[in-house]
Write a structure and sequence with these properties.
It contains seven helices and five strands; from the N terminus they run βααβαβαβαααβ. It has one domain. The chain is of the alpha+beta class. It has a five-stranded antiparallel β-sheet, with helices on both faces.
Length: 155
C-alpha cells in the first residue's frame, strides 16, 4: 500500500470542491463533504494506470480535465517551501469521458485491462471495480469525479 492517502469522490463541480476545501475538513479528507471511495490496499499509481488504460480506448479522451486544488494558479516552476503546489493536498477533476467509461464499462472488460501488457495488482483491479458504482451515481446526478491526493507525510 502507498504511504500517501488518496481518494476518489464525486461533486457537482469545481466550485463546490473549492468551497468545501476552503471551509476546512474536506481539504484533509473529502469524505467530510462528498461521497468518497478510499481504495484500501491499492497503490494510487496502479489505479491511475488502470484508469489511463481504460481511457486510451477513446481516441480523444484524457484522464484528467483540470486541477481544482490548489485553487491558485501555479506561479512558478520551482519548488518553494510552503507552496501548496509543492505541499499538497491536490484534487484533480477527471474528464467526463473517464466518468462515463467507468460508469458503463462491463466488469469483465475492466478486469481484462492490462497496462503495458502486464497483469495489474488485484487490489488495483478491486479498487477500479469499487469505483464503478461511484461513477454511475456521479453520471446520473450530472456530477464530476475527482481524484484527491493527500499531502505527503512530513519527513
Amino acid at each position: 500500500m502507498s504511504p500517501l492517502g488518496y481518494a476518489f469522490f464525486r461533486a457537482p463541480g469545481p466550485d463546490a470542491v473549492r468551497a468545501a476545501f476552503d471551509a476546512g475538513p474536506a481539504l484533509h479528507d473529502p469524505a467530510a463533504a462528498f461521497e468518497v471511495l478510499h481504495p484500501a490496499d491499492a497503490d494510487p499509481g496502479d489505479v491511475l494506470e488502470l484508469l489511463d488504460e481504460l481511457v486510451r480506448t477513446r481516441p480523444d479522451a484524457d484522464l484528467v480535465d483540470r486541477t481544482v486544488w490548489p485553487s491558485a494558479e501555479r506561479p512558478h516552476c520551482f519548488e518553494i517551501p510552503g507552496d501548496p503546489w509543492t505541499t499538497g493536498p491536490w484534487a484533480h477533476q477527471l474528464t467526463a469521458a473517464t466518468r462515463d467509461l467507468l460508469a458503463t464499462t462491463p466488469a469483465r472488460t475492466l478486469l481484462a485491462l492490462r497496462p503495458h501488457r502486464r497483469t495489474p495488482p488485484a487490489a488495483a483491479l478491486a479498487a477500479l471495480a469499487a469505483l464503478t458504482p461511484l461513477a454511475r451515481r456521479a453520471a446520473t446526478a450530472g456530477e464530476h469525479l475527482y481524484y484527491w491526493l493527500a499531502a505527503p507525510p512530513a519527513e
